[in-house]
Amino acid sequence: MDRRIPLRKEIEYLSPEGLRLDGRLPSELRQISAQIGAVPNADGSAVFEMGNTKVIAAVYGPRKVQNWGQQINDQALVRCEYSVANFSTGDRVRRPKGDRRSTEISLVIRQTMEACIMTHQMPRTQIDIYVQVLQADGGTRSACINAATLALAAAGIPMKDLVTSCGAGYLNGTPLLDLNYVEDSAGGPDVILGILPTLNRVTLLQADSKLTMDAFESVMQLVTEGCMAVADYIRSVLREHTKQLELRRGV
Amino acid sequence: MKELQVPLNQTQKIRLQTALQKLQDLSSKVDHSIVAVADTISVNHDDGFLKGHGTTELDGEVVATVCGVVERVNKLVYVRALKPRYQAERDGYWLGVIADGAVIYVTWTRIVPERWKVEINFSQDAVLMLSSMNMPDGIQAEVRDTFQHDGTLHLQARSRKYGKLEKGQLLTVSPYLVKRSKQHFHHLEEFGIDLILGSNGYIWIGEHVEARDNQENPSNQQNGTSNKRSVNLAVPEKTYTALEKRQQICRIANAIRVLSSLGFNMTKEIIMVIVNMSITLNVEIHEMLGAEFYVRVAEKEVERRSSLKMGRG
Amino acid sequence: MVGLSTGEKHFIKGGIDQDLRSDGRRRLTYRPISVETGVIPQANGSARLRMGETDVIATVKAEIGKPSHLHPNRGKVSISVDCSAIASPVFEGRGGEELSTELSVALQRCLLGGKSGAGAGIDLLSLNVMEGKICWDLYIEGLVINADGNLLDALGALSNTGIPKVNVAAEFSAEEQPEVDISDEDFLRFDTSSVPVVITLTKVGKHYIVDATLEEESHMSSAISVSINSRGQICGLTKRGGAGVDPSVVLDIISVAKHVSEHFIMKLDSEISAAEADEAGS
C-alpha cells in the first residue's frame, strides 16, 4: 500500500497472461469477508473487508429523534457519518472530520441506504449509520455501503432489499472489476455502482474520466455482475448469522 | 451473538468449538425456514394467507424485510426476527414493569395538577400519557389503549404488585433470548431475590420486595390523590443492600451475562443451573466472566439440551 | 449517555462501598483483557485491546524526520486519539472532540513528559539516528471502537503494546537519505521496559476503583491517572473531574496505583506475548 507509485506510463496493469498486478483476473473480485457484530454498544454492526480495504459500520436506532426539529412525522430520519482513521492509508495524513470528501460520501451512503429502508414503518424515529474506515486500499465507498447494509440487517431494521456495491475501471483496454488503490490511482475511469439486487434497481452510479459508450457498456456489465456476487455473499453471511443465532438460542 | 470478548487459550477454543458443534448437531434442522432480507417466502396462494411482521409483497410474492425465521400460524405468515438487544439510552428516573412484561425506564413531569407527562424508553420511545397512576411508589402501569394514529400509548395504573424497582441491577440482553411468557416475574425464595425477565430484554435482579398492596386503599388505585403522587421523588433510601444478598445478585447477573454473550435462551431454570454450577465449582463471582467459566457454560448447555432430547426421545 | 435510575445508581455506589461491584469485581480488579497485535498491516506496529466491552485500536507509524534545533539528539513522538462515532452517537461530528483531546493530552503527559522530553516515559534519545540531522518521528494514534469506560488506561496499555512491535522495513532508498545507510530491518528497537502504563483510579463515594465501566464512570467525582513504568517510577499524573481531593489521599492513590501497576504490567505482558505468538502462528 505504498503510495509512491511510479509514473503511470511505466506500469502495465495487465500482464501478458492477462493477470492484474495483484494476480487477479480482470473480472475477479478481491477476497471479501464480512463479520457481524463488532461493536457491542450498537444495535447492529458489521466489519466488511474487500482485499486490504477494511471498514466497520455501526447502526444506532431506530430511536427517539435527538434533534426535535428534524423529526419527520410519517417516516424515519436516516443519518450517516463517514470517517476515516488517520492510520488507514500508507502515508500518514491528519484528516479533519467533516471535510468535503467525507461529507459527500456520507451523503451518498445516506441516500443509498434510505432508498432501501422501510422508513414509513418507523415514523418519528431516527436511524444513525456510522461508518469508520480502518484501512483504505481502493473501493472504500463500496465497502462502506456493503458494511452498512449488513449492519442495518443485523439491527433488524426492515428493508425492501439489500443494497450492495462494487466498483470497476477500464485500464489497458480492459474492464477491471473492483480496483485496488494502485489501479484506482492509475487515472483511468472509476465506475461505482450500487444496486438493489432483488428489485433489480440501480441506486448509486458514479463515474469519472472519459470512456467510450461501448467501453462503458462492458464496464457496466462487469460491475453489475460484481454487485450480484457481493449480494450473494452478503446474503449467505446474513443467513448463516441468523441460523447461528437460532441454533444457539435453542428452545 | 456478540463477538467473543473473552480471551480463550487454545484448549478452551477447541472445547468451545466442540460444544457449539454439538449444539448444532442437537438442534433440529432450521435451514429451510431461515430467511435474509429480500428472500422470497413460499406461500400457498390458493389457500389465501395473511402477511405478518417482517414481510412485504413484491410482484405477487411474499418477501422478507428482516432476517429471521419464518413462522406460520394458520394463515398468518411472519418472520420472527432475532432482534439484537435494544440499546436505547438507558435513562429515566425510575424503573418499572408494565403489564406486558417489559421493564421500562420512566421519567415524568407534571404538566397540570391532574396530568403527568410520562416518558418511557421502550421500543421506539413512545410518549405515554398517564391519566392515573400510583406514583411515585408504583410504576406498575398497564397499557390500556394504543393510539396508533399519533403513536402515543395511554397507560393506566391498576395494581401495584411489583412496586418500583430499586436495590438491584438491570441488564439488557437481546429480547429474542427471553421467552415471552405470562410468568416473567420470579421470586427466588432461597435467595430472597426478585428476578424479572422483561420481554423487552431488560432483566432486573434485585432484592425481594413484598407486595404492598394492602397498605393502600384499593379504591385509591384508580384515582390516587394528587398530593399522594407528589411524595418526595428525590430521596432514595440510604441503606445499602446487605453484602450477602449483593453477592447473590451479582452472581445471578453474571450468569445472565455469560448466557447472553453465548446467545443462549434464558429462563429462570437455566439461569439457576448456571448459578448453582458456579457455586459448586467454587468460582468467584467476577471469574464467571472469564474464559474458563464461559466454556463451561457452553458445555453445560450441551449437557442440558442432550438430556432434554433423551427425555423426549 | 448513561442516565440510570436512582435505584440503580444507589446500588452501584453501595457495591463500591462494600467492595463488590455490579459484575462481581472488587475495587482493584480489572475486567478480562485481551490483546491482538498486527491488526493494521499498513502501520509499523498496531494492536487492538479489549477490556470488558471497551475496545480500542492503536497504531504506531515511524517516519524519518529532522530533529528540532532545541533538541538535536532526540526523536519526536506525537500522540493523538480519535473517538469514532461508531462507538457512540455522542461522538458524531465534533461531539467526540473534547474527549479525544482530553485523552490525547493526558496520554501525552503520561508518556512523553514535558517540553524538553528529558524525563519522558518513552526514551526520546533512543529515537536519535544522526544528531541534528536525522531522527525517528513516531506517530501513535488511537481509535476508540467501543467505549465502556476506562479508555485512558486501555489506550495507555496499547501504546505500550504497539511500540515494541514497531518494525521498520528498510525501504528508504539511498537517494532519499544519502547520509544514512539504513539496511538493518530491525533498526528501530526500543527499550520497552521503560514504557509506562497508565493506571486510573476513579473516585466514587469514599473509595477508589480501577477499570471503571461507563456506568461507574457516570458516578465519578474525580479520577487520578498515574503513569508508571515497570521500574516503579512515576512518569506522569493527571487529575480529572471537578471535585477536590484531599492532598494526603493523593499519595495514597499513587502507592495503590504502583501496586496495581505491577500486576497490570505482568498481565499485559503475558497477553502481548500470547498475541504475538498467535500472530506469528497464523
Supply database-style keywords.
heterotrimer; A: 251 residues; alpha+beta; Ribosomal Protein S5, domain 2; four-stranded antiparallel β-sheet; 4 helices; 28% strand; B: 313 residues; OB fold (Dihydrolipoamide Acetyltransferase, E2P); 3 domains; six-stranded mixed β-sheet; four-stranded mixed β-sheet; 5 helices; 17 strands; globular
3D structure, described in words:
- The complex is a heterotrimer of chains A (251), B (313) and C (282).
- Chain A is α+β, with helices and mostly antiparallel strands.
- Chain A has one domain: 2-Layer Sandwich (Ribosomal Protein S5, domain 2), CATH 3.30.230.70.
- In chain A, the strands form two sheets. In chain A, strands 1-2-3-5-4 form a five-stranded mixed beta sheet. Chain A has a four-stranded antiparallel beta sheet with strand order 7-6-8-9, sandwiched between helices.
- The longest helix of chain A has 37 residues, at 213-249.
- In chain A, α1 (100-114) packs across α2.
- Chain A is built from four helices and nine strands; from the N terminus they run ββββαβαββαββα.
- Chain B has helices spanning 10-26, 226-229, 243-262, 268-280, 291-312; strands at residues 34-35, 40-41, 50-51, 55-58, 61-64, 68-73, 76-81, 94-97, 103-112, 115-120, 127-132, 142-146, 153-156, 168-172, 185-188, 193-197, 202-207.
- In chain B, strands 8-9-10-11-13-12 form a six-stranded mixed beta sheet, with no helix packed on it.
- In chain B, a hairpin with a 6-residue loop joins β12 (142-146) and β13.
- Chain B is globular, with a radius of gyration of 22 Å.
- Chain B is an alpha+beta fold.
- Chain B has three domains: 10-25 and 243-312, no CATH class; 36-81, OB fold (Dihydrolipoamide Acetyltransferase, E2P), CATH 2.40.50.100; 94-229, no CATH class.
- Chain C has one domain: Ribosomal Protein S5, domain 2 (2-Layer Sandwich), CATH 3.30.230.
- In chain C, strands 1, 2, 3, 4, 5 and 6 form a six-stranded mixed beta sheet that branches. A four-stranded antiparallel beta sheet of chain C has the order 8-7-9-10, sandwiched between helices.
- In chain C, α2 (97-112) packs across α3 (151-162).
- In chain C, β1 (33-37) and β2 (45-51) form a beta hairpin.
- Chain C is globular, with a radius of gyration of 20 Å.
- Chain C has 282 residues and is of the alpha+beta class.
- Chain C is built from five helices and ten strands; from the N terminus they run αββββαββαββαββα.
- The chains are: A alpha+beta (251), B alpha+beta (313), C alpha+beta (282).
- Chains in contact: A-B, A-C, B-C.
- At the A-B interface, β3 and α4 of A face α1 and β1 of B.
